[in-house]
Design brief:
Elements: E1 14-15, E2 20-21, H1 24-27, H2 29-40, E3 59-64, E4 67-73, E5 81-84
């Protein structure tokens, strides 16, 4: 019987009764790709706190799944935050 609690559950990898998880979860490429798509690509992610960038012009590097991002405090408006994927406009290459 499948319930809402076990949707997406993979038999043999998670023992719900004992709470044990197979090591396979941490090394399986298919599971990793599925997590990237279903978790990181579809949900709001915490990339930093305003206390990490207290002054205008401050910035912090973070990751969202496999993407590197830059969180910065706008130097003109002070209270405005922005995040950027660090890539060049011309080549779309990581900086």
């Amino acid at each position: 019987m499948t319930t809402a609690r076990t949707t997406g559950y993979r038999p043999g990898l998670v023992d719900l009764a004992s709470g044990q998880i197979s090591r396979e979860i941490f090394v399986n490429e298919q599971i990793y790709a599925e997590e990237q798509e279903k978790i990181f690509a579809r949900a709001w992610l915490f990339i930093g706190h305003e206390s990490q960038i207290p002054n205008p012009g401050d910035y912090a590097a973070a990751r969202m799944g496999e993407e590197a991002v830059i969180l910065c405090r706008d130097h003109r408006r002070g209270a405005c935050f922005s995040e950027f994927l660090p890539a060049s406009r011309h080549e779309s290459m990581p900086l």
